[in-house]
Design a protein that fits this description.
13 helices, 2 strands, 44% helix, globular
Length: 334
C-alpha cells in the first residue's frame, strides 16, 4: 500500500472513531460517570469536601436523625431527573412538595454547607455535589465505610412535583422495584444494596400500619411479618393511632450503619412492605443472603458494595455544561 493510501485509510479510521465516540456521548450519562471525576475541585475549591463534612458532622452530632435524612435526600434526588439537586428548590409545585418527599429532613444542612462554600469559593461548588458528599459523610458518621465521590455535577433548572411519580414506593412489589431501578441503569443487586441504606433511619406509621391489621382485606396482618414482631409494631402503631409516629427501619440499629438490616429481613422483621419483599422473593433474596454470608456466600461485603452502588447511582443523568448551572443559593435557580 502506498504511503498516501495508508494515510487516507488512517484518517478515515480516526474520523470514524471520533464519530462513534460522539454518538456514544450523546446517548446520555446514566450511571456511566461521564461528566464527573475524582478531585474535581482540587484546584478551584480545595476545601470543598472538608467544608461539607464539617457541616454534616455538626448537624448529625446535634441530631442523629439528620444522617438518614441526608442519605434519603440523595436517593430521592437522583431518581427524579438525575442527581441535580432539583429536590432542593422551593416553590408550590416543586419536588420538595411531593408526597414521597414530604418527610425528608436535612435541607438546612445543605444550605449551611452551601453558605460556607460560597464564602470560600463563590460560584464554584454545585448544590448537587454537596448533596452527594453529604450522603457519603452521613454513612461514615454512622459507622459505614467511606468511598470516593466523583464530582462535577451541575444543578438542574427544573423541579416539578409530578416528576416524583416514579420514585420507588413503600408498597411496590419486587417486579416494580426491579423495573424502576432498571429504568435508571441499576440492576437487581444495586436495588438490594441501596435499599440497605434503611439500616439507618425510621419510617412513619402511615407507611406500614396497613400491614398490621387488615392487610389486603384479609382482616389479618401481612404474613411476611414475624408473629413475634407483630405485637411490637402494633404497640408502636395502634390501629387509628398517630400516623406520623416514627419507627426504626432496622430494629435495634437505626443509628448504626451495617448489615443488620438484612438480618431483620431474614427474620421477618422488615418494617415496610417493599423491604420485606426483598427476602420473600427469590430474585432479591440471593443478594440478601450474600450480605449475610449464607449458603457459602461471602459475608461482610455490604459496606464495600454500598459504596460502589452509591457511586453508580450518583452518576444517573448527570448534567454538565449548559444542561445545568451552579446555583448561588440551593433553594432557587439563578
Amino acid at each position: 500500500m502506498e504511503i498516501s493510501s495508508l494515510s487516507k485509510t488512517v484518517a478515515l479510521l480516526v474520523l470514524l472513531l471520533a464519530t462513534l465516540t460522539t454518538l456514544s456521548l450523546g446517548q446520555g450519562n446514566r450511571g456511566s460517570g461521564r461528566g464527573t471525576r475524582l478531585g474535581y475541585y482540587r484546584s478551584s475549591c480545595p476545601r470543598a469536601e472538608s467544608i461539607v463534612q464539617s457541616a454534616v458532622r455538626s448537624a448529625v452530632q446535634a441530631n442523629p436523625t439528620i444522617a438518614p435524612g441526608l442519605l434519603r435526600m440523595f436517593f430521592h434526588d437522583c431518581f427524579v431527573n438525575g442527581c441535580d439537586a432539583s429536590i432542593l428548590i422551593d416553590g408550590p409545585t416543586t419536588e420538595k412538595t411531593a408526597g414521597p418527599n414530604s418527610l425528608l429532613r436535612g435541607f438546612e444542612v445543605i444550605d449551611a454547607a452551601k453558605s460556607q462554600l460560597e464564602t470560600a469559593c463563590p460560584g464554584v461548588v454545585s448544590c448537587a455535589d454537596i448533596v452527594a458528599l453529604a450522603a457519603r459523610d452521613s454513612v461514615v458518621l454512622t459507622g459505614g465505610r467511606s468511598w470516593q465521590v466523583r464530582l462535577g455535577r451541575r444543578d438542574g433548572l427544573v423541579s416539578q412535583a409530578s416528576d416524583t411519580a416514579n420514585l420507588p414506593a413503600f408498597n411496590d412489589p419486587i417486579s416494580v422495584q426491579i423495573r424502576k431501578f432498571a429504568d435508571k441503569g441499576l440492576n437487581t443487586q444495586d436495588l438490594v444494596t441501596l435499599v440497605g441504606g434503611h439500616t439507618i433511619g425510621t419510617a412513619a406509621c402511615a407507611l406500614f400500619s396497613y400491614r398490621l391489621y387488615n392487610f389486603n382485606n384479609t382482616n389479618g396482618p401481612d404474613p411476611d411479618i414475624n408473629p413475634a414482631f407483630l405485637p411490637q409494631l402494633r404497640a408502636l402503631c395502634p390501629n387509628g393511632g398517630d400516623a406520623l409516629r416514627r419507627v426504626a427501619l432496622d430494629k435495634g440499629s437505626d443509628n448504626s450503619f451495617g448489615n443488620s438490616f438484612y438480618e431483620n429481613l431474614r427474620n421477618g422483621r422488615g418494617v415496610i412492605e417493599s423491604d420485606a419483599k426483598l427476602w420473600s422473593d427469590r430474585r432479591t433474596q440471593r443478594f440478601v443472603q450474600r450480605y449475610l454470608g449464607e449458603r457459602g456466600q461471602t459475608g461482610s461485603r455490604f459496606n464495600a458494595e454500598f459504596g460502589r452502588a452509591m457511586v453508580k447511582m450518583g452518576n444517573i443523568e448527570v448534567k454538565t455544561g449548559t444542561q445545568g448551572e451552579i446555583r448561588r443559593v440551593c433553594t432557587a435557580t439563578n
